[in-house]
């Protein structure tokens, strides 16, 4: 007899993983599916990082590492925060985890409990909502629009702040919209936080290096609120290291200690070889990975142009990450005579089953009128995928 915990009933299946599963099922039937549903770079990890891993193995760095990460790595991350982001987190304020997903889970479990409110602008990375629900917190979602590049304004944020608000969570560059908050926009958010000293913010900067507008800006650079900002980052996206599993936070000391305490009872320290490889990654001059950023920028432009040729699809210009998040609600209520499209889930399913392209419904990210298209794929694949999407949508009237 199944007898699952109440915790499990609070969780939803990840929509991105569900799309991957459906694509796999079609592929197993011999159908050529182009997958634009995944959140991972299609590059290999740079050689200089793999060299550091090889050396770590040769040096037998294979024992349990400290729970919060090797000191040498935490020092390297502390220097990186100073060098790239103008933030002062001492090595004691850094916690290294098995992926940024774990970093965020630690943080939520450390800060959020029964009935605490967490403000999350939509579109959001799906995991934020699920982890807040896991901790019995209450996600308070603020919708944004494509006209505003999917960014929340400081005054919209302030309106939602109540006595029970504990945390604001967002990513910049954003998954799924690709939006990047400017220094002025972050300064306005910092001003709001200054007026509400009980509120903390988690700024997820894992796409920091995939930024097409120039300098990345961090919320924690504003000294008036820096002691209430948790900066999340990691090597998965910027260094093409999704399978290595390493993320980290810089946080106020009490939060860093709490996260390490939680992690110490769940996974202990992150993989020792990965930690040594990450020292090479974060110590490197950021220009060493610009070739990936530049390739993503070209693909963004290609997909922008091809999307603009599809009737009824509204786009904006994403400034970072590797996603387009077009508005596709013109197709709701349309049909090909057999299948009726009611919402973004139906449309993503239709594009997969009829056009053999995997995307993800915007509703999964809290934006029901949109579709997430990852352009972490080759130009040939992207061109073919956009043509398939165009032809598939043309069947609907
Ligand atoms: N944050 C955002 C916004 C992401 O898109 C992802 C991965 O998709 C992560 C965090 C987690 O990254 P990882 O656990 O691979 O470090």
Give the strand order, joined by hyphens, for the main sheet: 2-8-7-6-5-3-4
Radius of gyration: 21 Å
List low-confidence stretches: none
SSE order, one letter for each helix or strand = HHEHHEHEHEHEHEEEHHHEHEEEH
Number of DSSP-assigned strands: 12
Instruction: State the share of residues found in helices, binned by percent.
Output: 25-40%
Number of H/I helices: 13
The best one-word shape is globular
- Give the overall average pLDDT: 96
The N- and C-terminal alpha carbons lie at a distance of 47 Å
Largest sheet: 7 strands, mixed
Description:
The chain is of the alpha/beta class. It has 13 helices and twelve strands. The strands form three sheets. A seven-stranded mixed sheet has the order 2-8-7-6-5-3-4, sandwiched between helices. Strands 9-12-11 form a three-stranded antiparallel sheet. The chain has a two-stranded parallel ribbon with strand order 1-10. Helix 7 (154-160) packs parallel to helix 8. The longest helix is centred in the last third of the chain and has 19 residues, at 290-308. The chain is globular, with a radius of gyration of 21 Å. It starts with 5 loop residues before the first helix and ends with a helix. The mean pLDDT is 96. The structure holds pyridoxal-5'-phosphate. Pyridoxal-5'-phosphate binds next to helix 5.
């Amino acid at each position: 007899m199944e007898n699952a915990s109440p915790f499990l009933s609070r969780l939803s299946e990840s929509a991105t993983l569900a799309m991957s599963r459906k694509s796999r099922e079609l592929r197993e039937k011999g159908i050529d599916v182009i997958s634009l549903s995944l959140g991972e770079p299609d590059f290999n990890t740079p050689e200089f990082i793999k060299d550091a891993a090889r050396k770590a193995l040769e040096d037998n760095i294979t024992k349990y590492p400290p729970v919060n990460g090797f000191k040498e790595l935490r020092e390297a991350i502390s220097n990186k925060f100073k060098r790239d982001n103008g933030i002062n987190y001492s090595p004691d304020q850094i916690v290294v985890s098995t992926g940024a997903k774990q970093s965020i889970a630690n943080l939520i479990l450390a800060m959020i409990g029964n009935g605490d409110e967490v403000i999350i602008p939509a579109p959001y990375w799906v995991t934020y909502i699920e982890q807040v629900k896991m901790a019995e917190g209450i996600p308070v979602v603020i919708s944004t629009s494509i006209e505003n590049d999917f960014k929340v304004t400081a005054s919209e944020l302030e309106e939602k702040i109540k006595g029970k608000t504990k945390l604001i969570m967002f990513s910049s560059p954003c998954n799924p919209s690709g939006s990047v908050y400017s220094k002025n926009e972050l300064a306005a958010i910092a001003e709001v936080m200054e007026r509400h000293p009980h509120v903390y913010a988690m700024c997820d900067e894992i796409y920091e290096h995939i930024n097409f507008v120039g300098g990345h800006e961090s919320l924690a650079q504003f000294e008036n609120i820096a002691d209430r900002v948790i900066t999340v980052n990691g090597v998965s996206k910027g260094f093409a290291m999704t399978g290595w599993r390493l993320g980290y936070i810089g946080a106020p000391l009490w939060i860093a200690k709490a996260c390490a305490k939680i992690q110490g009872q769940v996974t202990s320290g992150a993989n020792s070889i990965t930690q040594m490889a990450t020292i090479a990654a974060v110590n490197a001059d950021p220009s060493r990975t610009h070739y990936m950023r530049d390739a993503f920028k070209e693909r963004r432009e290609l997909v922008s142009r091809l999307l603009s040729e599809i009737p009824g699809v509204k786009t904006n210009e994403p400034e970072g990450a590797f996603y387009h998040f077009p508005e596709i609600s013109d197709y709701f209520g349309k049909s090909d005579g057999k299948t009726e499209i009611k919402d973004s889930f139906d449309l993503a399913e239709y594009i997969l089953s009829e056009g053999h392209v995997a995307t993800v419904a915007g509703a999964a990210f809290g934006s029901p009128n949109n579709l997430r298209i990852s352009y972490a794929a080759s130009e040939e694949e992207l061109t073919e995928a956009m043509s398939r999407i165009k032809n598939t949508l043309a069947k609907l009237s």
